[in-house]
Amino acid sequence: MGDAVVGSVTLRIARSLSICALSCAILPPTPRTVAAQPTPAKEALVIVKGVATPFSVFGLLKRLGQIPGVQKVTFDLSSGVADLRLRPDARVTDEDIRQAIFNASYTPGSIRWKAPGGDHED
Amino acid sequence: MENPTLSTAGGGYQNLATQGVLVYGITSQLALITQTYQPVWTATDATAGGKTVRLTAVGAGDTIQEARYTVYQLDGIGSTLRVAPLIGLAIPTGMDDSNPAIRRSEQPGTGNWGGRAALTSSWQTLYWNAEAEIEYRDYIPGAGYQFGNTFLANAAFHYVLWPTRITPNIPGELFASFETNFSSARPNRAAGASAPGTGGQLWLVDPGLDWSTSGYGVAFTALLPVLQQVYGQGRRYDWGFLFHIRISLYTPHHW
């Protein structure tokens, strides 16, 4: 399990570097402001496939709850949607969520991020 | 090979066994399954000098070690379809001479090492699940006796009777179950010759009820024969039942 955590951290760093490189290429040479950064999402709605018994929900919730920055997790059996509430300073990636679902022996589906100003789907 | 005949002899044979099954998830695909049978109690009638006497044998049964690996998994919302081959080893830990007056095939243990290979599949949803399995068992002679190689085909269907709406907070689930088991075995061999009254085909249908929670499960299943053929005059299968208790000991990998 330690390997999985290390893997996701490495990916997060790589993604940050690529965003930085893209920003440097397209942004004018003006001082960067806080407003130029994307607003951190506070909630993620994730489709989880393969949960076919109510008694395996506990394991899924525990895996998702172990992601650093996740404050609360709920899961709706009939729709297969997990609702992750994040701490304001959380930096959770799609890969973090997908890996946690794989580790719980299930299959991740689409991830929809909800930010205070709107939402988007990956 | 003798022709299969319908057996008519009950012989007063009874078998009562406690089976322990430990399933350990090594990874999300690989599981190790250990089955133990102990104690095993058998009883049979024997006629000597015009009198019928009751003979019993009790002792440890054999141990089965299996490994199952999921090779195909198709997950949907509220459902999962899995296909997993299985290989196993039968270890003769049982007593094959508990009561010398009882014939070898009715002792608590087989005294035979054996191998087994199976293909298992399951389709599980929130409100029902179905399982199917085919298996082949092969035995190596031990102490002058060899159990007949056996082919098995099993299928099961479980349907949730209660509650009518599944949520994560329900206390448990009550299932109606219906299973069917078919086995076809070669005759056992004693000292190189077919042992009379062994081998043949047996087809059972098994209605039952199953109460399942996250921590434990209890099930009762009746085993009712619809077809049986034995090579020579063998024991007739009248009825059987399974009383099943499951306790979940969650592994760190899954929880």
In short:
Chain A is built from 3 helices and 5 strands, in the order H-E-H-E-E-H-E-E. Chain A has 122 residues and is of the alpha+beta class.
Outline the secondary-structure elements.
The complex is a heterodimer of chains A (122) and B (255).
Chain A: H1 2-26, E1 43-49, H2 57-65, E2 70-76, E3 81-86, H3 94-103, E4 107-115, E5 118-121
Antiparallel strand pairs in A: 1-3, 1-4, 2-3, 4-5
Chain B: E1 4-5, E2 14-25, E3 30-48, E4 51-59, E5 63-69, E6 72-76, E7 79-91, E8 114-125, E9 128-139, E10 145-146, E11 150-162, E12 173-185, E13 189-190, E14 193-194, E15 200-212, E16 216-231, E17 240-247
Antiparallel strand pairs in B: 1-16, 2-3, 3-4, 3-5, 5-7, 6-7, 7-8, 8-9, 9-11, 10-13, 11-12, 12-15, 13-14, 15-16, 16-17
Description:
The complex is a heterodimer of chains A (122) and B (255). By secondary structure, chain A is α+β, with helices and mostly antiparallel strands. Chain A has a single domain, classed as Alpha-Beta Plaits, CATH 3.30.70.100. Helix content of chain A is 36%, strand content 27%. Chain A has three helices and five strands, in the order H-E-H-E-E-H-E-E. A five-stranded antiparallel sheet of chain A has the order 2-3-1-4-5, with helices on one face. Chain A starts with a helix and ends with a strand. Mean pLDDT of chain A is 72; it is low at 1-39. Chain B has a single domain (19-247), classed as Beta Barrel (Porin). Chain B has no helices and 17 strands. Chain B has strands at 4-5, 14-25, 30-48, 51-59, 63-69, 72-76, 79-91, 114-125, 128-139, 145-146, 150-162, 173-185, 189-190, 193-194, 200-212, 216-231, 240-247. In chain B, the strands form two sheets. In chain B, strands 1, 2, 3, 4, 5, 6, 7, 8, 9, 11, 12, 15, 16 and 17 form a 14-stranded antiparallel sheet that branches. Chain B has a three-stranded antiparallel sheet with strand order 10-13-14, with no helix packed on it. Chain B is globular and about 65 Å long. Mean pLDDT of chain B is 90; it is low at 1-9.
